[in-house]
Amino acid sequence: MTDTFVALSDPTRRLLLDRLSEQGGLTLSELSEDLPMTRQAVAKHLAVLESAELVASERDGRCKRHYLNPMPLAKMAKRWLVRFEDVPLGSLSGFHAAPANRPAHHP
């Protein structure tokens, strides 16, 4: 799951996942359109997403098509996010963050 969090930590990778969620089967060239980086940089981001199993790829002749794999996200949501669905916001009312001009107290 660490790979999933690392992969999602980058805004470019999240953008690539957004594009693949809208339309799967995109090539590297299609994913690189309108991005302020080289195709090689996009390919490196895709490699991170593939190693986290967030993107699956398949060959289509000379092209490689990329697809969103939602399973790691579903597993993460089930394990980490579901437990916070029913937390009443009132239970957080006693929480007070440290003021910005004062460092947090560490015992």
* Proportion of beta-strand residues: 5-15%
The arrangement of helices and strands along the chain is HHHHEEH
What is the CA–CA distance across the termini? 31 Å
What is the CATH superfamily label of the domain at 4-69?
Answer: Winged helix-like DNA-binding domain superfamily/Winged helix DNA-binding domain
The total strand number stands at 2
Using the alpha-carbon principal axes, give the shape. elongated
CATH architect. name of the domain at 4-69: Orthogonal Bundle
The secondary structure category is alpha+beta
CATH-defined topology of the domain at 4-69: Arc Repressor Mutant, subunit A
- Strand count, sense and closure of the main sheet? 2 strands, antiparallel
Q: What's the CATH class of the domain at 4-69, please?
A: Mainly Alpha
Query: In DSSP terms, counting alpha (H) and pi (I) runs of 4 or more, how many helices?
Result: 5
Low-confidence stretches: none
How are the strands of the largest sheet arranged? 1-2
- Share of helix among residues? 40-55%
What oligomeric state best describes the polypeptide chains here?
single chain
Provide the residue-averaged pLDDT: 86
* Radius of gyration, taken over Cα atoms and rounded to an integer in Å: 19 Å
Domain HTH arsR-type: 1-88
InterPro entries: ArsR-like_HTH, HTH_ArsR_DNA-bd_dom, WH-like_DNA-bd_sf, WH_DNA-bd_sf
Organism: Qipengyuania aquimaris
GO molecular function, one term: DNA-binding transcription factor activity
